[in-house]
Amino acid sequence: MCSSRRPPTSARSGPGSRPLARITGVAAVLLVLAGCSSGLADSPGAGPARGASDAYAAYTGLTGQARTDKLLADARSEGGELDVYTSNTDIQSLVDGFQAAYPGIKVNAFRANSETVLQRVLQETSAHKTANDVVDTNDFELRVLNGQGALATYDGPAKANLRKDAVFPGWQAERFNAFVVGWNTAQVGDGQGPGDFTDLADPRWKGKVALEVGDWDWYASMHSYLTDVRKMPAADVDALFQKIVANAKVTKGHTVQGELLSAGQFAAAASVYSHTIDNAAAKGAPVAWHPVTSPVILRPNGFGVMAAPRHPAAALLWADWVLGDGQRSIAGSHRIPAVENVPGFADPIPAGTQVYTVPDSVINASDKWNKAYDDLLRGVPQAG
User: What is the largest CA-CA distance in the chain?
Assistant: First the structure.
């Protein structure tokens, strides 16, 4: 579209190998859940429908100031706290903004990488000991959680302002991450950046390209774009990626990738986030991603409210705020908001850019693409 995973038989470690802890850990948790004598929907307050009706029914149909007043009063009576599990590296700006809007509510944010967040929620939910109210992470993890009945549908009035591509069963995007090609401007002169992703296969980029070790969804989306949109034979796409990998080093984590790019450890990053580049450039780092290298891969990142939350009123208060005034905070972090017409936001992706959204077919075949990306990166040296 333009504009449960299988556990591996073994794990590898050491330089140049892709860690498989994420796949193994998530698969193990899902297998435990599948093997339980009763599913999540059989537990008190669990399951999407029951969680929504029991925990959030008192707020159905409320709008405007009456809704906010009711949620705020009930959030205070719940204890004045909100527990958020997140992989969002910019969560603090949202926490600060929310607490400024509602001084009586304290946000307890647990932040880790997306796979750790997923495993924690699955383990706690399967034990019927949900310890959070909201989970904020990547699309794949949210789809898994919704499939396991851990999330309830959010139907607040703020949902009506979302982009059409931001609404999913059981959760919604609050922002979009754009995978782009970024480069170090001290090493890549004006007009010398790759005009197209396929340019990174050129031998002149030998040893100068960074790939991120966990970006199986980016890889799968780029592969699908080249085959489905540009109609390249799959064998040619595979050969293209082999040439790019021959020019590459790997990094672990997009934050580290951005830091190493800024430090000149490599000349270009094939799958860096646009906001990573923009935040670094705003601090004076010699990095850029314009003129844009085609295509840009767009991935929704969002949140879900828990089916059995500890603080249901606070969860809805957070959801309403994040999809309302919180969108300006998201835009201020150089992120792409999920709501239409955010004041002061200028889309960093120029009109006419080839944009490809991570397709459902990629998410539904995560085991296949995980393995393919792992095999592709086998033996690639680490950066840094």
Answer: 64
Find tokens 């990094």 and name the residue. Answer: 251
- What is the distance between the alpha carbons of residues 156 and 68, in angstroms, rounded to a whole number? 11
Q: Using alpha carbons, select from 252, 197, 203 the residue that is nearest to residue 225.
A: 197
Measuring CA to CA, how many Å separate 38 from each of 100, 122, 128? Answer: 42, 15, 11
Give the tens place of pLDDT for each residue, 83-115: 999 999 999 999 999 999 999 999 999 999 999
- All domains of the chain, ordered by start, with CATH? 21-173+301-337 (3.40.190.10), 177-299+349-376 (3.40.190.10)
| Backbone conformation region of residue 273, classed left if phi is above 0, alpha if psi is from -120 to 50, else beta | beta
* Residue-level length of the chain: 384
More confident call, 16 vs 59: 59
The model's pTM:
0.84
Q: Long-range contacts: 337-342, Cβ < 8 Å, 24+?
A: 337/174, 337/175, 337/176, 338/162, 338/163, 338/166, 338/172, 338/173, 338/174, 338/175, 338/176, 338/300, 338/302, 339/158, 339/161, 339/162, 339/163, 339/166, 340/161, 340/162, 340/163
Query: Which of 131, 166, 178 shows the shortest CA–CA distance to 150?
Result: 131
Which residue, among 279, 259, 275, 52, has the nearest Cα to 151 in the 3D structure? 52
Question: pLDDT-based confidence at 236, cuts 50/70/90?
Answer: very high
Q: What is the per-residue pLDDT across 107-137, written as a single tens digit (0 to 9) for each?
A: 999 999 999 999 999 999 999 999 999 999 9
Asked if 144 and 52 touch (Cβ cutoff 8 Å), the reply is no
- DSSP at 226: I
Which secondary-structure segment (H or E) carries 321? helix 312-322
CA distance 193 to 200: 10
Q: Is 191 helix (H, G, I), strand (E, B) or coil?
A: coil
The C-alpha atoms of residue 72 and residue 311 are separated, in whole angstroms, by 11
pLDDT bucket at 26, cuts 50 / 70 / 90: low
